[in-house]
Amino acid sequence: MTKSRLAAVDVGNDSIKAIFGEMEYELNIPNIIAMDTEDRPIIGIEELDSKDPLDGIHIKVHSPALKENNLIYRVGNLAAKSNNASELDPGSSKSEEDQTLIMLFATLALDAAKGIFPQTKNVIDANYTLGTGLPLREVKEGKDAGYRSKLIGSVHQVEFLVTPKYQGLKVNIKFNEVKVYPEGFAAFINLVMDNNLKIINKDLIDKRILIQDIGGLSTDIAVIKNRNVDDDKAQGFNLGVSESLEAIREEIRKKHGVELDSRRDVVEIITRKNNRNHIMVRGSRTSVHDITDRILLDLAKKQYRLLRNVWQKNSQTEICYFVGGGAHVLKDYIKTINNNLDGYNIEFFEDEKESIWMMANAYYKLITDFVKKTEKQKAAEDKATVNN
Q1: What confidence tens digit (pLDDT) does each residue in 202-221 have?
Q2: What domains can be seen in the chain, in order of their start residue?
């Protein structure tokens, strides 16, 4: 039996963030796929092994969990360059989209291909204990059980086609265990506990807090009191940043004739430290402030309205933490609105990585804790069996 490897994977709408093993390996891949009908041509095939696999993920995926099986995909950076690139649509459910599974399997296969598992000829048998999550709305609708059952008990195969370093490798993925956590709860765990599940934020542990997690397609507002997420009060909304990023991309195309590959390119323009909100137009640096400010301010107002409504229903709330990639994009706009209006006690994570990796870190803490408890329980049962 292949030893199971820990994997904590946040299938974010913008990108996949994954942590493996003893936190020794991380992956961050844009959540973009493009269906391929034929083998893609490679320029300079002899240079294939010198390139980064992450820039050329080209795979065939076989899994009984998929609605459309045995198809070929370009993934991540490679997909972004395709004319038929697909990003998750607003209103879609993460748990029901093939794209979520394709990204998950591709990420695990990239980890497995590093030589962690036994390999026979060109086939790797990989076994994972997975911690992942879904938006609160989907968990409240009971979709977590269906999502988990798609993964458990089946073999999911990723075959690397024209991918640097890994061309010709097949990875068979099995799951020893899958835990699916609600995203709001995960954010709370990450705020108050370290990697060993020791409480690091004593000030926060008994406060009444809100956590507003702004993603690409949805926003979750977790209501925390008495150290627990109040499932009845917690709310999920079909409002994320993807639609606004798409609108910015489209307006830049119409006004300046500049094609941006993906929403991620838009995020980079909005959040980078130098020349923020500027693009190159025919070789000249050009401001797109007018476009980004108008569209993002409108979204920030909608996000603020959500905060206000939930806070009114939980009037004894002491602080709201904004987390997620969307929060990082909207941070300055929400702060400005809050300063001009109600002046709620709100907090953002100034460190972009901390905000964006929050869910993956939380899943890692939770799945590690689960494994430790399971091993402890098994050791106790084995001991009892011996004593009997």
Answers
A1: 777 778 899 998 888 888 89
A2: 5-181 (3.30.420.40), 185-240+299-358 (3.30.420.40), 243-292 (no CATH)
